[in-house]
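FORM 7B: Structural annotation worksheet

SECTION A. Query
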Amino acid sequence: MQAGIMEGNAPWIRYYHNDRYDPGLDHGEFDLFLEVNDEEEKKTMISMDSISILPDELLERILSHLPIASIFRAGCVCKKWHEIVTSKRFSLIVARQKPWYFMFTSTEEAVGYAYDPTLGKWYGIDLPCFVTSSWFIASSSGLVCFMNNDNRNNNELHVYNPITKCCTSLMMMEPPPGGLRLLSDYTALSITVDSASQAYTIAIVKSKQVPENFHQWDLSIHLYDSETMLWVTLLTEVLNGWRAGDTSVICHGFLYFLIYATGGGGGIPNNSRHGLIRYNLSSRSPSSSSSSSSEGGLVRSFIPVPCSLTCGRLMNLKDRLVMVGGIGKRDRSDIIKGIGIWILNANGTEWQEMARMPQRFFQGFGEFDDVFASSGTDDLVYIQSYGAPALLVFDMNHKQWKWAHKCPVTKKFPLQLFTGFCFQPRLEIHP
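SECTION B. Predicted structure
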């Protein structure tokens, strides 16, 4: 599977992975990244001559601060540069890149475009052929975890680096005899990566309705450790009047996931329709949000959400728990009047509103249909409507909203849906 530059679909990943530099390759294709006139080309050539006399270590340091796409192109300039950018040492010092956003352009195929906010460009990238937009997807520090959403095959997982195209396939453990089945009505997937050791942890929260009982739901939490290569079931519990959903995240050693009211009680105050659960992965127990809580089990860690939400999504932005959601109207909570972004305070007890999408951006989505996708990491949050390929970016650091450059895909039929996920482009992380 190859990836290509959007303009003309010229390949770029393949040059980076050649075992040796081939002067016969048409490296001119990489000029698509830069459009310069003759005068600028002349200046560039002079600059190149100056750079070529620099010591290798200094040249390595300079190249490491280029955007990822420019690094691939730099590797095709000459044999010396190719050896530098393909070395293991170089991959470890590449400057931290802004997170990219991958947008699926088909519901049946693993194809789409990835947006680079640094250069404002879209690149055509193919994912592993078995992945589709309906799979469960989570990402962390350069790795993306894909999980089959088909109940017949939902023990199939893959951990993948979209830049280097390295992939590892995992199989979930089978349940013990008489134990809770891994089939579920709702599944929430999350992954966290230790950048130093490159070890990763995958958490899966499964929720299934108890047969012939609408109000009770079996909930289980499963954890995979890449160092031990083992799955463990951390918890199984029956919730009364509550079920888990399809969003979760690991942040600062805690697993967070949203739960939703199904009726029938449950011991949650203020008639809340949904809330946040916090589970301590170190102690392997629910983490109480209140020292005075009298509830047992997962309910003890219940944290109310700030308002009635739709399409709620949890994100880890630099070890800060962030939630994005549609703000429902008072009389019709299923109709959203805006989109908000909140951050959980250090004590894990209250939400602070960071931003609310201005109306000019909210209305700019056009066909919104009250459903949208959101994903984020580092300092960026990406939001897009399921009904259109428009992509909005919010910079948490600068508190700034901005439209991404137009994606090179058009809506082909009225019911076509668009979705995607955010990931960090990294060279040194391997699954």
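SECTION C. Observations
Confidence is low (pLDDT under 50) at residues 1-46, 176-181. Helices lie at 13-16, 38-52, 56-63, 68-74, 79-85, 88-93, 359-364.

SECTION D. Sign-off
Analyst initials: ____
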